[in-house]
Write a structure and sequence with these properties.
The complex is a heterotrimer.
Chain A (H helix, E strand, L loop, with lengths): L1 H13 L3 H24 L5 H5 L2 H34 L5 H8 L1 H4 L2 H12 L6 H8 L7 H26 L3 H8 L4 H12 L1 H17 L2 H6 L10 H11 L1 H27 L4
Helix pairs in contact in A: 4-9, 4-12, 9-12, 10-11, 12-15, 14-15
Chain B lengths: L2 E9 L2 E9 L4 E5 L6 H9 L6 E6 L2 E5 L3 E2 L7 E4 L11 H11 L4 H14 L15 H13 L5 E5 L7 H17 L3 E6 L2 H7 L2 E6 L2 E6 L1 H6 L4 H7 L2 E14 L4 E16 L5 E3 L9 E12 L4 E7 L3 E5 L1 H7 L6 E6 L5 E4 L1
Parallel strand pairs in B: 3-9, 3-10, 7-8, 8-9
Antiparallel strand pairs in B: 1-2, 1-4, 4-5, 5-6, 10-11, 12-13, 13-19, 14-18, 15-16, 15-18, 16-17
Helix pairs in contact in B: 2-3, 2-4, 3-4, 4-5
Chain C lengths: L1 H21 L7 E8 L3 H14 L3 E8 L1 H9 L6 E3 L3 H9 L8 E6 L1 E6 L19 E4 L4 H13 L7 E3 L2 H9 L5 E5 H6 L4 E4 L9 E7 L6 H12 L1 H9 L6
Parallel strand pairs in C: 1-2, 1-3, 6-7, 6-8
Antiparallel strand pairs in C: 3-10, 4-10, 5-8, 5-9
Helix pairs in contact in C: 3-4
The chains are: A mainly alpha, B alpha+beta, C alpha/beta.
Pfam families (chain C): SBP_bac_11
Family (chain C): Belongs to the bacterial solute-binding protein ModA family.
InterPro entries (chain C): ModA (IPR005950), ModA/WtpA (IPR050682)
Chain lengths: 272, 349, 252
């Protein structure tokens, strides 16, 4: 009797279904093996000297700065947008929701050209920015931030909107009955309750911005110290010096994995 | 200041058309089956749902009068206890109670002090820093009540305040809620589908069916003269206040009951009309509670006959049609009513 | 059975080799895969159509891209039959790796030209204007052939350019000019011509010092060696040269 019970319990807790584990392991390998390839091919001997070269530092600093600024921009604009999509009483919400994801399906280079059409020197809006304020966004660091934000914002909006839609709107009603305006209710009740979703979206958004290439090089161009972010540096290095490209990629990889892991510990698995 | 509400809401095929008047200090229970419009009425009063017709006025203040006036929830002096409390999970019990005061611009320190006082009043001073998910159902309900009352609202709205509690907790919380409602000087509207909650807590019952008021009055009135089968089934309860000493309860209006479970102090005594048997002579044997009554009225319902009986105390009895014939029941006839002690429940009040 | 099959295979292979050695327009059947520099996009597309018309049953498939990227893809074993590069240096990478089946030959020469948006709004006249900090300037990055050529031109002219952007290929530079985002850029003459009326070209004397030879070679791992040789020969034929000249290329 006892042995049967024992065996039963072992089985109940022990075995993971093979139909899930096998594809899971394959999926993990599929994602990780290319990274391993990168690490194996990395010229470890010359790595330190390449790593501390001025151009790598400059590109890395610019990448981190631009990705972070782009993420802030996405948060400032994207969270309210997600709220509007999830809670707002706007007509054609389904269409709006689909349009928000356009930068996801648009090839980033096309996104960059589209930004030029709007914000370029002769763009719909850009011509007035140039004529009235003397502001020209292409080929500037601000342009990099805009291009990255354009491509990365859907990640934030989608994830925050999902969190908002999963959150019970009656908590906002409860806040209203306690005298809270919609803004206060959003700030003090809704936002804290969807914080994990916001953090997850922010992380995705930042990571996407960090790796952004196509829209950036198209809209903001490429000039060292000004608009040459790590992905651009990697691409151009591939033209002549594949080893340098690998080094740059490894640096980008390590920095992003480090930041994401730190955030994850702090926020995503932290509070619960 | 009296709360006058002529609640008219049309949504699809559903229509609510109910008039409610609540005096200061009065507790009105809106009772009705699911889908009767209870929640709609509560949401309209709270300002979470605009009326499509009618009005809501508190004294001279117009809260809602379509199409001109609408005052949203955050600008109405209300407190709401929701069915599942909706405590803010990321805030402590204290911060939850202080929320309304903070939202109304009370400085943080003052709000926290006031909130602490309220938590103390509901007996949760020790749990001020607890997060809602660590509280028991009864504790959460008390925090929700404290949160609703902390802003000293003119109108307190309770949406099925006891529905989420298990039976044992319910007894205590109901009694405690009753005490707080008696102390509360504002207007109280309680929405429930539980007749016992309504009858124990409310001064007046309003019964809603299909969006309309089918009957209103004091719990005793409604219980003794139910106008529809639904009301009869719903509020067909014999309910008395009294003082318990062991298994004996002396009723406030005269008379005495023996109950199975001993209790002390003020109690409600409850038993259903089906527990009452009628006899031509004083019954012998097991019933511990027997007293003289005279027939005041007879109503025929779907499957049973409900007999209203005067006596000390007056009582309702549901009997079969055959028994009516056997006893030759007619108004004015003298009888003995009997109830087994095991059928009589005493709840602390 | 197996011996029979082997013998048949040898006969077929032998015939193929003999035939291709004999007549230039015999290509074997199937497809020819050509990896070509981005600046050859328009002209090679047209040459491919002509080649297909002249050799029924043959399909030419192109992979246009930055020469360096293409050289790397070939190095990693991409299935290419022919490589046409925009610079001898990138071709040399493939040759050094033993990737070519024959000595590369120059088939065209391209010349840099100043490209300005239609109407030349900034009034650019020569290379000296590229040193103007106020003018928006786009150049190819130094790592790609058009960037290296530009550097030679500037060195020859003694001008230190002040570019606002260093683009990853010449077509990206051209796009910036087309959209009017920059006032001037250095691109190939063929690019100016391909852009039609949207872009104006301005010649400059130092361009003679910054000409670019385009080498072409059949590849060692070609799946269609006969086709590869035939395509290379077609590009070098009078007919091929005429099409190239029309697009603005010079003879090497």
């Amino acid at each position: 009797m006892t042995s049967i019970a024992h065996r039963k319990r072992r089985r109940a807790t022990g075995r993971l279904p093979v139909v899930l584990v096998l594809p899971a392991v394959l999926g993990l390998a599929f994602l990780l093996v290319p990274l391993v390839g990168l690490l194996v091919r990395a010229p470890w001997g010359t790595l330190p000297s390449r790593l501390f070269s001025a151009s790598v530092g400059e590109a890395l600093r610019l990448s981190l700065l631009c990705a972070s600024l782009a993420t802030v921009l996405c948060l400032v604009l994207g969270v309210p947008l997600a709220w509007l999509l999830a809670r707002g009483d706007v007509p054609g919400r389904g269409v709006l929701r689909a349009l928000v994801t356009v930068p996801l399906v648009l090839p980033p280079v096309v996104g960059g050209v589209a930004l030029l059409f709007v914000l370029g020197r002769r763009g719909l809006v850009g011509q007035y920015l140039d004529a009235w304020f003397g502001v020209s966004l292409p080929f500037t660091t601000a342009g990099v931030v805009l291009a990255e934000a354009f491509v990365a914002m859907p990640f934030l909006v989608i994830s925050v909107e999902g969190a908002l839609r999963a959150a019970d709107p009656r908590y906002e009603e409860a806040a209203a009955t306690l005298g809270a305006s919609r803004w206060l209710a959003f700030r003090r009740v809704t936002l804290p309750s969807i914080l994990p979703g916001v953090v997850a979206g922010t992380v995705l958004c930042w990571a996407r911005a960090l790796g952004e290439f196509g829209a950036t090089i198209t809209f903001a161009g490429n000039f060292p110290g000004e608009t040459t972010t790590m992905p651009l540096a990697v691409y151009l290095a591939l033209e002549t010096d594949p080893d340098a490209a690998i080094v740059l990629s490894v640096v980008l990889l390590l920095v992003s994995v480090g930041v994401l892991a730190a955030l994850r510990d702090r926020w995503i698995s932290g509070p619960s | 200041m009296t709360l006058h509400a002529d609640l008219r809401v049309a949504r699809g095929v559903f229509r609510l058309d109910a008039e409610l008047v609540v005096e200061p200090g009065e507790v009105v229970a809106v009772l009705g089956p699911n889908g009767a419009g209870k929640s709609t009425a509560l949401r309209a009063l709270a300002g979470l749902l605009p009326l499509t017709g009618g009005h809501i006025r508190l004294g001279d203040e117009v809260w809602d009068a379509p199409p001109d006036a609408f005052r949203p929830a955050e600008r109405r002096p209300i407190g709401v206890v929701f069915q599942d409390y909706l405590l803010f999970a990321h805030l402590s019990a204290l911060e939850n109670v202080a929320f309304g005061l903070r939202a109304r611009g009370v400085p943080r320190a003052v709000a926290r002090e006031e909130a602490a006082r309220w938590l103390d009043r509901v007996g949760l001073a020790a749990h001020a820093r607890a997060k809602p998910r660590t509280l028991s159902g009864g504790q959460a309900q008390r925090v929700a009540l404290a949160r609703a009352l902390a802003t000293e609202p003119e109108l307190l709205l309770l949406d099925e305040p006891l529905a989420a509690l298990d039976a044992a907790t319910r007894l205590h919380v109901r009694a405690e809620l009753g005490r707080h409602l008696r102390d509360y000087p504002g207007h109280t509207l309680l929405v429930t589908h539980d007749p016992l909650d309504a009858m124990v807590l409310a001064d007046r019952l309003v019964v809603l069916e299909h969006g309309e008021v089918v009957q209103q009055g004091t719990p005793t009135e409604v219980a003794r003269r139910p106008r529809t089968d639904y009301v009869a089934d719903l509020v067909g309860l014999n309910l008395y206040r009294g003082t318990a000493r062991g298994t004996s309860v002396a009723l406030d209006g005269g008379g005495e009951f023996t109950v199975a479970a001993p209790a002390t102090g003020p109690v409600h005594v409850v038993f259903p009309p089906t527990a009452v048997s009628l006899h031509p002579d004083r019954p012998t044997g097991s019933p511990r509670n027997a007293w003289r009554v005279t027939v005041a009225g007879i109503e025929q319902h779907a499957h049973t006959t409900r007999v209203r009986l005067d006596g000390v105390p007056p009582v309702l009895a549901d009997i079969t049609t055959a028994t009516v014939a056997d006893l030759r029941l007619q108004p004015g006839a003298g009888l003995w009513a009997a109830v087994k002690a095991t059928e009589v429940h005493a709840y602390p009040s | 059975m197996r011996a029979w099959a082997l013998a048949a295979l040898l006969v077929v292979a032998g015939c193929g080799a003999a035939e291709s050695g004999g007549a230039a327009d015999t290509t074997g059947d199937g497809r020819v895969t050509v990896f070509a520099a981005a600046s050859l996009t328009e002209v090679f597309t047209r040459l491919g159509e002509d080649f297909e018309a002249a050799h029924p049953g043959v399909e030419v498939v192109f992979n246009f891209g930055g020469s360096s990227a293409l050289a790397q893809q070939i190095g990693q074993g991409a299935p290419a039959d022919v490589f046409a590069s925009a610079s001898p240096a990138t071709m040399a990478q493939v040759v050094d790796a033993g990737g070519t089946a024959a000595e590369p030959v120059a088939f065209a020469r391209n010349r840099l030209e100043i490209a300005v948006p239609a109407g030349n709004p900034a009034g650019i006249t020569g290379l000296a204007d590229f040193a103007d900090a106020d003018a928006k300037i786009a150049l190819c990055a130094g790592q790609v052939p058009c960037g290296a050529a530009a550097k030679r031109a500037f060195d020859a002219a003694g001008v230190t350019p002040r570019p606002d952007t260093l683009e990853q290929d010449v077509k990206a530079v051209l796009t910036k000019v087309r959209l009017g985002e920059v006032d001037a850029a250095l691109v190939y003459r063929t690019d100016v011509r391909s852009a039609g009326g949207e872009v104006e070209g301005i010649g400059f004397p130092e361009a003679d010092l910054a000409v670019n030879d385009y080498p072409i070679a059949p590849l060692a791992k070609a799946g269609n060696a006969a086709g590869a040789r035939a395509f290379v020969e077609y590009v070098r034929s009078d007919r091929g040269q005429a099409v190239l000249a029309e697009a603005g290329f010079e003879a090497p």
